[in-house]
Design brief:
Blueprint: H1 14-35, E1 42-45, E2 50-53, H2 54-70, E3 75-78, E4 82-84, E5 92-100, H3 102-106, E6 113-120, E7 123-131, E8 136-141, E9 145-147, E10 153-154, E11 169-174, H4 183-193, E12 198-200, H5 205-214, E13 219-223, H6 230-240, E14 243-246, E15 265-268, H7 270-280
Parallel strand pairs: 3-5, 11-12, 11-13
Antiparallel strand pairs: 1-2, 3-4, 5-6, 6-7, 7-8, 8-9, 9-10, 13-15, 14-15
Helix pairs in contact: 1-2, 5-6
Protein name: Inositol monophosphatase
Organism: Actinomadura chokoriensis
Pfam families: Inositol_P
């Protein structure tokens, strides 16, 4: 994904929008943290084993209310509410993931985050990720870099951590629609795992993106990812210096109007990217199909 400023002028001040989004994410994070100590109303969501809690909906209502108050004409796509229309012809769209990592929360594992992204003409221009557990927030404006906690600029370290030059730590993410018997997912995940010292499956992609931006991990591979949480984290990592490519090695385009089948990715430190692509391109083809024997 190329991190460049959109060619046409935007009808919104991105610095101001960043402030609104950060405040909304942090307020939702406080709500989530306060609710973690009590009983959780965990309910099934769909037929794929996903779940939703009352905290998801409460945090989403808070965020949507903040966004509607600041930008009443903008469209909103929210994890639980779906598409909320804005003014006719409006090109600005917010993506809201109020609790990325609900399955973790449901089993008492404190690995989750809040994510917001603002898109212009389907292209992400602002991303915010807040980690309620640590109280830290990361945000990025397209073409202007990433800010970490307390607004300090964040850049991906130029070198991997000691001992990780040949043994990277990676993360794997896949969408909820991926079934346990998906042979493409199994083949791709297995091939990538053979190339690293450890592969994390966090069930909270936004947490993995911030880890990549900080250099805590060295790369992420995503298969049929969820669009609602993808842009916020990807923009934070890309603006910090990570590089993104399609699984087949082609240029990565983040448009939210693309189907999940076109959003699979490799994201990594620049010096590691080609090595990971040597593996993923053995499975992925430019036509979107995969080299897997069924």
């Amino acid at each position: 994904m190329r991190s460049t400023t959109p060619s046409a002028a935007l009808p919104v001040d991105l610095s101001e929008a960043r402030g609104v989004a950060v405040a909304a994410a942090e307020a939702a994070g406080a709500l989530l943290s306060a609710g973690m100590g009590g009983p959780l109303d965990v309910r099934p969501k769909g037929s794929g084993g996903d779940v939703v809690t009352a905290l998801d909906t409460a945090a989403e209502e808070l965020i949507v209310g903040r966004l509607r108050g600041a930008y009443p004409g903008h469209r909103i796509i929210a994890e639980e509410s779906g598409v909320l229309d804005g003014a006719p012809g409006e090109e600005m769209v917010w993506l809201v993931d109020p609790l990325d990592g609900t399955n973790n929360v449901a089993i008492g594992m404190p690995v989750y985050a809040v994510g917001l992204a603002l898109c212009a003409r389907a292209e992400p221009v602002l991303g915010v990720v807040h980690d309620p557990v640590s109280g830290r927030t990361w945000s990025a404006v397209r073409g202007e870099g990433t800010l970490g906690p307390k607004g300090v600029p964040l850049r991906l370290p130029g070198r991997p951590r000691p001992g990780r030059e040949e043994n990277p730590v990676l993360a794997w993410t896949q969408g909820h629609q991926v079934k346990s018997n998906d042979l493409v997912a199994f083949t791709l995940r297995t091939a990538v795992e053979k190339q690293c010292a450890r592969m994390l499956q966090l069930w909270a992609p936004l947490v993995a993106w911030t880890m990549l931006a900080r250099g805590d991990i060295d790369g992420i591979v995503g298969y049929l990812p969820e669009i609602v949480d993808l842009p916020a984290g990807a923009l934070v990592a890309a603006e910090a210096g990570a590089e993104l490519r399609r699984l087949d090695g082609g240029p990565y385009e983040m448009g939210i109007d693309r189907p999940a089948s076109e959003l699979g990715f490799v994201a990594a430190r620049p010096d590691l990217l080609d090595r990971l692509l040597e593996t993923t391109t053995q499975v992925a083809r430019p036509d979107g199909r995969f080299h897997v024997a069924f």
